[in-house]
Amino acid sequence: MDSNEMKSLIQSYLNAYNSFDIDAMLLYLHRDIEFRNISNGVIDAETKGIEQFRELAEQSKKIFSHRLQTIKNYSITNDKVEVEINYEGTLATDLPNGLKAGEKLQLSGKSIFKFKDKKLRLIEDYS
Fold first, then answer.
1. Domains of the chain, residue spans
2. I need a surface site. Which of 55, 56, 57, 64 has the fewest CB within 10 A?
3. pLDDT tens digit string along 44-62?
4. CATH no. for 3-126
5. Are the beta carbons of 53 and 27 closer than 8 angstroms?
6. Residue 122 pLDDT more than 90?
7. CA 25: distance to chain centroid?
8. CA distances, 9 to each of 4, 24, 27, 85, 104 (Å)
9. What Gene3D superfamilies does the database record attribute to this sequence (predicted)?
């Protein structure tokens, strides 16, 4: 894949993510997708395979009434794309950590994407 194809695939995935369209998100994922969410250096969510990813996406969908990931910058090396991300979301439910429904979150972070067979094979989100 060339860099434009990789950027386009990532943007299409994020558009589906932002609109809570899980079926569309899955279209861009390799069946062996690996996903990790890493917060303050600790893995707090991890999936292997498209079914585990779907389960996590369905759970996450219930937590937010609004969410938006915006790409600030791309860095491409071979089959790996590192993306600087701005994230904002509005909680739909109270969380165990004390955050309440209606509260807005704003974070900056990065995501790493790797590819296989013209699909996303790895997604790592860092915040």
1. 3-126
2. 55
3. 999 999 999 999 999 999 9
4. 3.10.450.50
5. no
6. yes
7. 9
8. 9, 12, 10, 16, 28
9. 3.10.450.50
